[in-house]
Automatic annotation (TrEMBL):
Residues 19-191 form the FAD-binding PCMH-type domain. The gene is murB. This is UDP-N-acetylenolpyruvoylglucosamine reductase. It catalyses: UDP-N-acetyl-alpha-D-muramate + NADP(+) = UDP-N-acetyl-3-O-(1-carboxyvinyl)-alpha-D-glucosamine + NADPH + H(+). Keywords: Cell cycle, Cell division, Cell shape, Cell wall biogenesis/degradation, Cytoplasm, FAD, Flavoprotein, NADP, Oxidoreductase, Peptidoglycan synthesis. NCBIfam families: murB, PRK00046.1, PRK13903.1. Cell wall formation. The lineage of its organism: Bacteria, Pseudomonadati, Pseudomonadota, Betaproteobacteria, Burkholderiales. It is an enzyme of class 1 (oxidoreductase).
Length: 344
């Protein structure tokens, strides 16, 4: 097995949506398991710390990376089977997520429309169980294949094995730094069932003339989601960001009631287990952070949950701003905010 040809002192600036300059000691594009087997067989490369990189849209690079960046580039989408209820579609880790969703819609397959326009790759989507507008990846997930660096084998994991949670999965715990997702298979329901439970989506459909969301097609929902996201979120090609910077904190019913008594208008959503999810953006906004800047790092003026790079911010600048926001929210509400992007 020949040693993979890595590039050295490689700039990651174009490979993260914050647009932050940081350099990787070594960089290698990966198109499948064979490249990973070759890395594992090479004593020098195998000894390096690894960073698996997709679209870099959920990362904060706070320093240069003294290790090997494995950039997932594998391509390919195919229908791999069907039964009475589902069509099964497999996509390689390096496929662009939004491009993949649009491909399914063009084939007349529905189920992923609410997840339109989320940046990044297919392979990263299970890592934090991406979600938006009432749907999470786990709702359409069938199985995935991943290369296990510890065993040197390709594993197949079903939904239970992935242990999906809110912006969470086994890949952030036991399989962290161990499993590299190679491809993901989705089970797309044959029975069309629009999900317009989110007020924004329902309103956008109404504006398009649908008196009943049940009459909307998957394409209509996708177009509504794309329009809402384009209006609300900064385009990383124009202003560096990683989407929502903090997870929505989960608190007990007791804590939520106590907060509500003190803070009129507190936005919260009841969870199945009786706990409440608080809108982190509302908490940050109430602390007066919306539109504020600290040097070149800032809080997006239309959405307090999104931190932005106004140009030339370092990862440390963004991290410092995030820390100041966390401290304020803790002081005012007694609630801990946890960042969503991975800090490197
Ligand atoms: C404008 C904007 C809007 C966003 N909106 C949403 C949203 O609505 N919902 C949502 O959930 N997220 C959202 N995000 C966050 C982000 O798009 C998702 O988390 C996405 O899945 C990250 O994909 P990526 O390929 O860019 O991952 P990267 O940033 O490259 O990596 C993220 C993490 O996954 C790991 N990883 C990547 N690929 C693999 C792989 N193949 N195998 C193993 N580990 C891997 C990395 O090591 C890292 O830990 C948004 C981001 C932006 C910039």
């Amino acid at each position: 097995m020949s040693s993979p040809a890595t590039q050295h002192d490689f700039s990651l600036r174009a490979l993260n949506t914050f647009g932050i300059e940081a350099r990787a000691q070594a960089y290698l594009p990966v198109d499948g398991a064979d490249t990973l087997r070759a890395v594992r067989a090479d004593a020098t490369l195998a000894a390096l710390p690894r960073l698996v990189l997709g679209g870099g849209s959920n990362l904060l690079l706070t320093q240069d990376f003294a290790g090997l960046v494995l950039h997932m580039r594998g391509a390919g989408i195919e229908v791999v089977g069907e039964d009475e209820d589902f069509t099964y579609v497999r996509a390689a880790a390096g496929e662009n997520w939004h491009g993949f969703v649009q491909w399914t819609l063009a084939q007349g397959l529905s189920g992923l429309e609410n997840l339109s326009l989320i940046p990044g790759s297919v392979g990263a989507a299970p890592i934090q169980n991406i979600g938006a507008y009432g749907i999470e990846l786990k709702d359409r997930f069938h199985e995935l294949r991943a290369f296990d660096f510890a065993a040197g084998e390709v594993l197949t994991l079903d939904r239970a094995a992935c242990r999906f949670g809110y912006r969470d999965s086994v890949f952030k715990h036991e399989l962290r730094d161990r499993a590299v997702v190679l491809d993901v298979t989705f089970a797309l329901p044959k029975r069309w069932q629009p999900n317009a439970n989110y007020a924004d989506v329902a309103q956008a459909l109404q504006e398009k003339g649908f008196s009943d969301a049940a009459q909307a097609s998957a394409r209509d929902i996708a177009d509504a989601v794309i329009a809402i996201r384009t209006r609300k979120l900064p385009d990383p090609a124009k202003i560096g960001n990683a989407g929502s910077f903090f997870k929505n904190p989960i608190v007990s019913a007791q804590q939520r009631d106590a907060l509500l008594a003190q803070h009129i208008g507190l936005v919260s959503y009841r969870q199945d287990d009786g706990s409440y999810k608080l809108a982190a953006g509302w908490l940050i906004d109430r602390c007066g952070w919306k539109g504020k800047t600290m040097g070149a790092a800032g809080v997006y003026e239309k959405q307090a949950l999104v931190l932005v790079n106004h140009g030339g911010a370092s990862g440390a600048d963004i991290a410092q701003l995030a820390k100041a926001i966390q401290d304020d929210v803790m002081l005012k509400f007694g609630v801990a905010l946890e960042p969503e992007p991975v800090f490197i």
